[in-house]
Design a protein that fits this description.
The complex is a heterodimer of chains A (342) and B (779). Chain A has 342 residues and is of the alpha+beta class. Chain A has 13 helices and twelve strands. Chain A is globular and about 60 Å long. The N and C termini of chain A lie far apart (49 Å). Chain B is α+β, with helices and mostly antiparallel strands. Chain B has 19 helices and 31 strands. Chain B has a seven-stranded mixed sheet with strand order 5-7-3-15-12-13-14, sandwiched between helices. A six-stranded mixed sheet of chain B has the order 9-10-18-17-16-11. In chain B, strands 19, 27, 28, 29 and 30 form a five-stranded mixed sheet that branches. Classes of the chains: A alpha+beta (342), B alpha+beta (779). Chains A and B meet through helix 13 of A and helix 19 of B.
Amino acid sequence: MNSFAWASARTIAEAATAATTTVSDAMVASPDAIDGGTKSVVKAGGIDLLDLLKENLLTPGTVVSLKEVPGLDAVAEEQGGGLRIGSMATLANLAGHPVLRRFYPALADAIQGSASPQLRNVATLGGNLLQRPRCWYLRATEFHCLRKGGGHCFAISGENQYHAIFNNRPCAIVHPSTAATVLVALGASVELTNAEGSVRRLLLEDFFVAADTDVQRENDLSAQEILTAVLLPPVPASLHMAHLRQGEKESFDWPLADVAVVLELDRDGSCKRASIVLGAAAPVPYRATAAEAVLAGKRIDESAVREAGHAALAGATPLDKNAYKLPLFEALVRRAVLKALA
Amino acid sequence: MAADGTTRTEKFPFGIASVGLGEVDRQVPIDEPPPLAPNAELAVIGKPIPRQNGRAKVTGATRFTVDVTLPGMLYGKILRSPLPHAEIRAIDVSAAARHPGVCAVLPVARSDDPSASVVRYIGAPVAAIAAVTMAAAEEALRLIRVDYNLLPFVVDVDKARESTAPLVHDSGSVPPGHASGFPAPTGLPLNGNVRGPAVASRGDVAQGFAQAGVVVEGEYRTQVQTHCCMEPHAIVADWRPDGLTVYMSTQFTAGVRHELAAEFGLPLSRVRVVVDGMGGGFGSKSMLSKYGRVAVALSRQAQAPVRIALDREEEQMDSGNRPGTWQRLRIGARRDGSLTAISLVGYGTAGVGLGAGVGNIAQALYACPNFETAQFDVFTNAGPGCAMRGPGNTPGAWGLEQAIDELALRLSIDPVVLRDRIDPSPVRREERRIGADRIGWQHRHAPGADPGPIKRGLGVAQSLWGANVQINSACEVRVMRDGSVEVLSGVQDIGTGIGTVLAQVVAEVFGLRPEDIAIRIGDTDFPAGPPSYGSRTTASITPPARTAAWRVLQELYREAALALNAATGDLTASAGRIFVRDEPSRGMNFGEAAARLRTDQISAVASRSDDYGGFRRRMGDAALAEQDLGGVQFAQVAVDTETGIIRVERVVAVQDCGRPINPLQIESQVQGGVLMGLSYALYENRILDQHTGRMVNPNLEQYKLAGPREAPAIDVVVLENYQGQSATDAYGIAEPSNIATAPAIANAVYNAIGVRLRSTPMTPAAVFAALGKVPSGSQ
């Protein structure tokens, strides 16, 4: 870890002004660069940031804490329905939040299944969405990979058992946030506030950046911009949802695969709209549009479930060591659809 | 022996308590106590006494080596090789030496010394710094300039066996023996990267296979497992003109003292090794190790105490590991199950080190007249292995116990019944009976019988481990005039609770409570204790503790006898009193007897005598008891054939360790052994990037250890197996409880899904491959 200055922002404007770079940009550097110079990065819960600092993957001049900004952790129901979650709300608070548990149970499940109790007490939703991928090549300074400004993805020809099975060129990371899997399926948006106080809102799905668009970042956050809130759309009674994750183990582990299913059902029980998102499958949460198409406009019976599971994997390009994810995802999609209907 | 007056004949309880006890005559040295009654007749021994330092540990009061701070202490850091195989052409430490706060700089690799100019794995020490702060030490490390010449390397064990593979060692660099105090066969041939074979045989294997009605043959693999001690390897070395004191997280204070004395040319009397709290070792903290030498050398250079604590990445890459193995087993049997021949070929890799054999379990567990084995070490450019909980027999059992399971299936004999026929041990017979009953073995069904995607299965496997004893083990017991008692030994508590066990043994002698005994251990200023490896601590140190206490008690009896006007031989000590055995009212409190002492303190030191029935083998300070240790474990698993997830629902572990002294602590150790075995079977794997030789998961996030949610219900049963071999008749439990778990799980997986997984870890990828759902290469 390098020596850095500490700044505690009191307002969003103060934080945004101070945040002269994003973590992603700050990590694009020669691996030998120790001096972070004048670059400042934002810290929310600090779970990921501390890892990056300790591994010397990030050597900022200043760390700007959001902890003292008032109200950033508020969770509020919005007029006209929907929920506004402040980006500093902790995962522990969200997992137990009565509104989430009642109206967005898939999200509460996904958050409850993340990390460990200790981490959830400190980790924030904003930090969870913005955390860097867990790819072991990205996480070691010895591998100067594409995502850090290098010329090579070590995973594609290397140890890729935990890597992407979709859109895995030129980089095979998987997006690390399980909450994001559900949020994308729900059609959630993010609110980004810059130093001048102007706000942009965009769908979380559009906020994420595919590896073949820009391999050095997973999202569209700019320098001097703060992720201030996550906005959940209202949930009509016709909406059914489920999230399933499968880790190699259940204690403190990242999922091998996770699946979020949101179904909007007609009064006759047929599926008006399906949203099926796969996590730990691609560099950003992966929308299984072929599976969604299978269910849309149909009464969901056993064969439709089976077909959706199969369709979810259409176009997968597994690597040497991760073909096992195909049958695993197929099973999880089937089970998540059934769980949503149950 | 009895005739020369140095021994007397005594009758000892003998046999398995749950089966029925008999007696055996033993020759006991005249200065050792009379036979200890079976546990049922004792007050303290055999009772579930809570760990004496448990509260201190969970409240954070225990002082571990990483907590030791001395005035003026410096922080040491080691620069490690970023390359898997390189010649060091030059090391320039000048800028590091000038860095503010740096007090000592030590090259470890040397360009001018051919024996030290090559690094052979990523993480190999190159140089070291001691500085006033950790940050200064880390900054200075980055200022060391090393000119490496990358050499060809190989990290894959199969590739390393090829004749064209890059050579890991030259003739001068091949290590002479195992890294953890286990004797290695010397003088074995080296061909390329392959050293060996170490061979053993009996009978005529070809003839044995000719007699067989059924032959099973299989190849088994085990991954490299790392020790993952909760407390990292740590040392604070304090070099002073009048001697060296070392605080170290170690499994063997006395051994480290010997190593330090030899390495630094000091008399034993000027070297002191101390350990208080210990956060696990599992074999990896058996010796001084390179980092320990570095810390002492830095302290000598800086003339100040130096602390080195490895970080987790250093732990994972260079603190030892359980070697990976490959083995091919062939077993022949007659139709009735009797074995006719076993043939075992093994190739394992301990990286640049030795010790990758698969043990003696195939050789010794079952009756089989014809046996042969050839075991090879394959060098790779990876961190050296060392002993890890049940070295050899743990990977060995993975192969053997699955092969026996497969044999039972081929013979259409129940796996428990087959073992009843071929396993001569009466102890394991009883363990199988108890375990089969507890797990509900009679309800075991055929593979794949469950209707849904989740298939359940039951499996059994057995463990075998030598009952090791350290002869060079001593203990002192003191009684003070105020009635307080203390027990002193260099023996260390590595987390197993030996201090509590010593208190029980001493308390039983004096008729006191365990909490009345002050425990002072983990310091070479006390009589030299045994190492805490090889499951030998309890077997080695409890007999001298009881003997020393008994001798002190005789002295106390002499004072009490005078006051009570009784014969010393008529006295007994029980419930805090010393009194006339047949007239309990004629007596006094223990404290009143102590108050009559002529001096403030009386004391006796005793050492470990030979087992009363003799040893099977003596090896220097160590010996192997006549009887083996073992155990039988049963596992119940649920395999989700759609996700590939294996969940271990239940393990029944029936173990033996001679006389159990503290059932609570034994249960805790067996649970640890089972969890470690489960983690080995399903999750753990040191993964090296084949293109760079670098471990990609050198942490506890991506190196996967079983956690609370993976823990099955563990049902522990411990036999009382009396052999009349020492003053306590107690032996060890740590390793035998780890050996059978993984194959028991694998056999249960077979029983669940009808497919055998022959490699660890059994990941979802491996399950899908076995089920034919993905190509077998994709895991």
